């Protein structure tokens, strides 16, 4: 009798233990990012994104540049939750309209990617994962490193326009305040210096530059480079609606390489912050190492992009999977 009770007890507790473990594994699995999260729910998801990013790149090369900037502007504001993609409607104030988002472009092509996904797997792949994976694929199109990105992010149901200017540094901020902002989301100095290497592609509008040129020229700017910048931005008060800009990196403007670091060492940094990274004793050693070694830059860039993309994700039952990345779902 006692043996039977004992056996019965151990069998049922074993079953109980197994079920608890399964539930635990299931819930942990659901609430964390993982590689190939859509393997069962939408097996072609990553391939569809890659195909669309590649097609868009061949039509409009600068879409790839935009996907890289989108990753930064979305993930550093709360998390990679596609809060950036929401448009102003029904009480939502779009993050895109903030002064910090000046010059952001190509949002309409996010829809091209989302539409292709919705056709194959409706309401399955989050806009947040589109932000992350399009950046991963955009980085590759621009000659940058391969990043092993996890998926399973969910979309926010609100915009964070109200905290945006506390979340995204300004181009005139000090090196130490920028470092501490990145530190607060788990990105160290080396990683922060690597991420700024994204300014090896793309452009800066004159409104973000003229204070370095007029009324007096910032003495840290190389004189020949200053001539180029003044040619691109001939007046101290550029019309914000005119598309007046200078290239981030004149050498290889569409390649994500270490020219950004070579440029700042040669006093050809575009933003005040870019240039200051080359004189601050905390960042200069990394700038020098990255300028000397593109592979090292790429390794650090890939590491830091991963940290940025995994900061504070919205997972499990939180948030939603938006149908249209521009709007929260109406229930
Ligand atoms: C403290 C950090 C940063 C500041 C203050 C900053 C600021 C800026 C500014 C002012 C522009 C020019 C916008 C314009 O006039 O059109 C710009 C462009 C850009 N930024 Fe940053 N940025 C920072 C970090 C990053 C990071 C971490 C990334 C990506 C990993 C990034 C990617 C880009 C890209 C790709 C562009 C070019 C966009 C285009 O050509 O459309 N930036 N950034
Ligand atoms: Ca966000
Ligand atoms: Ca470049």
Automatic annotation (TrEMBL):
- Keyword terms of this UniProt record: Biological rhythms, Calcium, Disulfide bond, Glycoprotein, Heme, Hydrogen peroxide, Iron, Membrane, Metal-binding, Oxidoreductase, Peroxidase, Secreted, Signal, Transmembrane, Transmembrane helix
Q: Which terms in the Gene Ontology molecular function aspect does this entry carry?
A: heme binding; lactoperoxidase activity; metal ion binding
The positions flagged as active site in the entry are 73
Kindly list the positions annotated as binding substrate.
169
- InterPro entries registered for this protein in UniProt: Haem_peroxidase, Haem_peroxidase_sf, Peroxidase_pln, Secretory_peroxidase
**Cell compartment(s), UniProt:** Secreted
Q: Which Pfam families match?
A: peroxidase (PF00141)
Residues the record lists as binding Ca(2+) 2: 249, 252, 257
The record lists the catalysed reaction(s) as: 2 a phenolic donor + H2O2 = 2 a phenolic radical donor + 2 H2O
The cysteines covalently paired via disulfide bonds are: 42-121, 75-80, 127-325, 206-233
Q: What is its EC number?
A: 1.11.1.7
Q: What class of enzyme is it?
A: oxidoreductase
Q: Which GO terms describe its biological process?
A: hydrogen peroxide catabolic process; response to oxidative stress; rhythmic process
Where is this protein chiefly located? secreted
What residue ranges are annotated as transmembrane?
6-24
- Highest taxon listed in the record's lineage: Eukaryota
In this protein, which residues make up the domain named Plant heme peroxidase family profile?
32-329
| Cofactor(s) in the UniProt record | heme b; Ca(2+)
Q: Where is this site: Transition state stabilizer?
A: 69
GO CC terms on record?
Answer: extracellular region
Q: How is the cofactor bound?
A: Binds 1 heme b (iron(II)-protoporphyrin IX) group per subunit.
Question: Which N-terminal stretch is annotated as signal sequence?
Answer: none
Q: What does this protein do?
A: Removal of H(2)O(2), oxidation of toxic reductants, biosynthesis and degradation of lignin, suberization, auxin catabolism, response to environmental stresses such as wounding, pathogen attack and oxidative stress. These functions might be dependent on each isozyme/isoform in each plant tissue.
Alphabetical list of PANTHER family matching this protein: PEROXIDASE, PTHR31517
Its family? Answer: Belongs to the peroxidase family. Classical plant (class III) peroxidase subfamily.
What is the protein name stated in its UniProt record? Peroxidase
């Amino acid at each position: 009798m006692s043996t039977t009770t004992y056996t019965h007890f151990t069998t049922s507790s074993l079953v109980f233990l197994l079920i608890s473990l399964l539930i635990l594994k299931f819930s942990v699995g659901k609430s964390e990012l993982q590689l190939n999260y859509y393997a069962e729910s939408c097996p072609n998801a990553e391939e569809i994104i890659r195909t669309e990013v590649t097609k868009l790149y061949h039509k409009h090369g600068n879409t790839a540049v935009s996907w890289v900037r989108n990753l930064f502007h979305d993930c550093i504001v709360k998390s990679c939750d596609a809060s950036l993609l929401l448009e102003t409607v029904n009480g939502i104030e779009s993050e895109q309209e903030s002064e910090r988002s000046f010059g952001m472009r190509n949002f309409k092509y996010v829809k091209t990617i989302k539409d292709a996904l919705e056709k194959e797997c409706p309401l399955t792949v989050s806009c947040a994962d589109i932000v992350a994976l399009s950046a991963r694929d955009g980085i590759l199109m621009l000659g940058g490193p391969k990043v092993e990105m996890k998926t399973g992010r969910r979309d926010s149901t609100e915009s964070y326009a109200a905290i945006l200017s506390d979340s995204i540094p300004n181009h005139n901020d000090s090196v130490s305040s920028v470092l501490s902002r990145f530190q607060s989301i788990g990105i160290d100095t080396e990683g922060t210096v690597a991420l700024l290497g994204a300014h090896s592609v793309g452009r800066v509008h004159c409104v973000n530059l003229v204070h370095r040129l007029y009324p007096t020229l910032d003495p840290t700017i190389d004189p020949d480079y200053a001539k180029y910048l003044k040619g691109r931005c001939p007046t101290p008060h550029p019309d914000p609606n005119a598309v007046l800009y200078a290239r981030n990196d004149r050498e290889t403007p569409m390649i994500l390489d270490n020219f950004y670091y070579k440029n700042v060492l040669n006093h050809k940094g575009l933003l005040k912050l870019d240039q200051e990274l080359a004189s601050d004793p905390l960042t200069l050693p990394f700038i020098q190492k990255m300028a000397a070694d593109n592979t090292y830059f790429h390794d650090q860039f890939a590491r830091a992009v991963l940290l940025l993309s995994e900061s504070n994700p919205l997972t499990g039952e939180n948030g939603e999977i938006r149908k249209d990345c521009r709007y929260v779902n109406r229930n």
